[in-house]
Specification:
3 domains, Jelly Rolls, eight-stranded antiparallel beta sheet, 11 helices, alpha+beta, four-stranded antiparallel beta sheet, 16 strands
Length: about 400
């Protein structure tokens, strides 16, 4: 039977291995609290003396990894202040916050990059028109004072950026991408709003029209801009997990009276499930309001997700993972160093020279792992690693200099 020290050693090895690869985020939302294995408090075992060197080696590696994490954080801050024209674009750490279990509601902080949000706004600003509602009696669309925003629809997988976002929405919600409706973008300004409503349907008109493709099972709201005042999403019937911490100051009157309110923050995403877990009955606690945008312009993009496939088969991953050039000038651009100098144009989901910049891999048909690999920009990843290595070297130099001064 293994000794207590051997069991503790096994646990500590697993922890150390997890810490070593700090670039791989295993549990998104976990904030990285440290754990003390308590090895020094275990009773001495003469049979385990030969493991002391192994334990010391593990502790040294864990310590070095944590120091590297601190150095990387400093490098990230330096990169953010240096701008993104010639370096990899920075992105705040994504993490998930549970805000209610009744209804089930979550915020995915930093779900979108600033560039992705700007991309959607750039397209939507050329298309928006006054938003409509569906008449529950006739099934016809009409203008109504309950909804005063301006909106537009994007085609599913309309471009690689939209396709990649739709793929990530499917991964986060654990709902197939073919259950998604096309993305709807909305603009609110000068007090525009969408009054209290449900996203799921229970009227005869909608049931007759949508029964073949199910009902709306979940809603994802992507916040594409910050709003100076107002524009919150209010769920008046929701039960907060922590009423004190979930009642921040500075909310508009619409958002400060009932339930839970989510303040728009560029890049964040709100998910709530409109129906019970089996997708059979609508959850009336998902009643929600888009509060008036009092100061500033609010941009959002909404994904409604059905409990059945909607509009047929859809595979956003294939579109998001394309590895091709779209410009005839890629040879000259690559020779001029534009792959690293102008990443926003050259690489990534909308890059015009992904293949020539070696920003992706050519995937065989049906190779899902390869396609998932291509959702990330290899050029940006290399730039980030180079910047981190440079920051680590600078940090080591500073520590060495400080140590020299202390010695003197």
């Amino acid at each position: 039977m293994p000794s207590i020290r051997w069991l503790a050693l096994t646990l500590f090895v697993a922890l150390a291995v997890a810490v070593e690869d700090l670039s791989e985020e295993v549990l998104i939302g976990w904030k990285g609290e440290t754990y003390d294995a308590g090895l020094d408090k275990l009773p001495k075992n003469p049979d385990a003396a030969k493991n002391e060197e192994a334990i010391k080696d593990i502790e040294a590696k864990a310590k070095a990894a944590l120091e590297a994490e601190e150095t990387d954080a400093g490098a990230d801050a330096a990169k953010a202040s240096a701008g993104s024209s010639g370096t990899a674009a920075t992105r705040a750490e994504p993490w998930i916050e549970t805000i209610s279990w009744n209804p089930r509601a979550f915020i995915h902080h930093n779900f979108l990059t600033p560039e992705e949000a700007d991309h959607l706004v750039g397209i939507g600003s050329k298309r928006v028109s006054r938003s409509m509602v569906v008449d529950a009696q006739t099934g016809q669309t009409k203008l109504d004072d309950i909804r005063t925003s301006f909106g537009a629809a994007f085609g599913r997988g309309e471009d690689p950026v939209i396709a990649e976002i739709e793929e990530r929405v499917a991964e986060w919600t654990h709902l197939p991408p073919e259950h998604q409706e096309p993305m709807q973008i909305l603009r609110y300004v000068d007090g525009q709003k969408y009054g209290a409503h449900w996203d799921w349907f229970d009227d005869p008109v909608h049931h007759a029209a949508y029964v073949a493709e199910g009902n709306r099972y979940a809603t994802v709201v992507l916040y594409l801009s910050d709003v100076e005042y107002g524009g919150e999403t209010n769920l008046p019937l929701a039960d907060p997990i922590d009423p004190v911490s979930q009642s921040p100051k500075g909310m508009s009157p619409c958002a400060s009276q009932w339930g839970i309110s989510v303040k728009p923050k560029k890049g964040d995403a709100l998910l709530f499930f409109d129906m019970d877990i089996m997708g059979g009955v609508g959850d009336r606690r998902t009643l929600h309001t888009a509060c008036p945008a009092i100061r500033g312009t609010k941009w959002t993009a909404t994904k409604w997700i059905h409990n059945k496939p909607y509009m047929g088969k859809y595979d956003p991953l294939h579109a998001a993972a394309r590895c091709a050039d779209t410009s005839p000038d890629c040879g000259a651009l690559v020779a001029a160093g534009e792959c690293e100098k102008n990443m926003a144009r050259m690489v990534g989901a909308t890059g015009i020279c992904r293949a020539s910049c070696h920003d992706c891999k050519q995937c065989a048909a049906g190779d899902i792992l390869c396609e998932r690999y291509n959702m990330k920009s290899l050029v940006r990843a290399r730039a980030m690693r180079a910047a981190s290595a440079s920051g680590a070297s600078a940090g080591a130099g500073i520590k060495a200099a400080a140590g020299g001064r202390a010695a003197r």
